[in-house]
Amino acid sequence: HIWLHVRTAGHWTKQLYEYFSAIDPIQENPDKELKMRQRKSHARASWMPGKRQSQFKIKDKEELQAEKRIAQIMKKVHVKCHIDGPYGTATREIFETEHAVLVGAGIGVTPMASILQSIMYRYKESKRVCPNCKFSFYGVIPESVMKLKKVHFIWINRDQKSFEWFVGLLNKIEKEQIDVAFEEGKDLEKVIDITLYMTAAKAKTDIRGAGLQMALSIIHRRDKKDLITGLSTRTQAGRPNWNEIFSKISEERKGKVKVFFCGAPQLGQVVKKACMKFDFRFRKENF
Q: Which parts of the sequence belong to the Ferric reductase NAD binding domain (predicted)?
């Protein structure tokens, strides 16, 4: 037997509870149950010497009916149940994807931190060669291990402070990609593209933020560093234009695109709608 305890704490668990509550319980025969209890009581009395049969109380019909009313919360129903799985989180599919787009909103970026680290580690290992004979220690990564050809990471936050706790990892990823390109003596071709959005900031198209954004752009071109996060990637002001973003991603033609989202459900619906327009597969994860 399998016992499954589900706490009604959300939408689908509440619907599950309401579904089972609406099902009529199995109608049991009180007379039949009474006779079964009597037989069990007599059997126990015969197997226990020194005990008088009067010591065993036999429940009558009224007591059985009362028990049944109390036990309604544990009623027996005829329902066919099928078990499928186990399943992991949506992000487990990333390494089976050719072109992955990771979208994190606020704290929704948390499950993607380890994914980005793992991607960068595998990429670096595949590029390791002997400095003398140029022997590749890892070789070409087989598709069974990682199909990834390109990753776009998009992180959306309201203000500058929200970026602070995760910027260290992003800065490390940027430097590691530059180091790999330098060791190979090739132009920088990023396997992970990082784009950050700060929704509280006014965009260039807004006259209230035009001056500030122009100044930030000039500083970024001069210092090759973003003044808000310290990354080489320029932080974008305002909300993402998903049609524009996905259009550029589609033009890269790095393979089949799959979008992985973690964040507020309302934003998830917006991203999903844009994915359908560009025929991108959409996966979401709750955190």
A: 99-275
